[in-house]
Structures are given as C-alpha cells and as structure tokens.
Amino acid sequence: MATDPSRKRALPVRLAVLAVAMFGFGYLLVPLYSVICRLTGFNQLQSADSVAAGTRTDVNRPRPGDTGGAGSVAPAAEAAGAVVSRRPGRARAS
For 49, phi and psi rounded to 5 degrees? Predict the structure, then answer.
C-alpha cells in the first residue's frame, strides 16, 4: 500500500494550522473576556465597595509592620518568653 506524498505533507500543515489557531485563540481570550464581563456584569473588582453607614475603624487592632506599642502583639509575645525583634518582619521564637 503506497502512500500519497500529498497526504504525508498534509499532516504537518494541519498541525501547524492547529497550533496557530490555538495561539490566536489564547491571544484573543483577554479582550473577549473583557467584553463578556462588560455585557454580563461579572468581575466588578475594579469598582469600589460601598461602606455601610455607622462603620468604625478598630484602632486597637495591630497593623502589618507594627513594631510595638498599645495594641501590638510584640509585648504579648515577649511576656510569653519569645525573643522579639523591633524591626518589622524579623520576629523569631526562642
């Protein structure tokens, strides 16, 4: 059974066309996703959240990078026997 030379060339050409089509589809997904989100109302992460009336900030809550003082976790850790560095991100237990 002899194979036709044009059939031998057809498979690599088809695979190359498929690879280009997959790349193009992946390239077009970002704008397509934006259009779909705009039409359906999904992914509204860019809009600001509304704050409920009467909401107050918890002033005693420690913030990232807090190095001590009122409301800090550092004095409590020192009382528990941990060695606490006063530089943010450098705390370690003994």
Answer: -75, 150
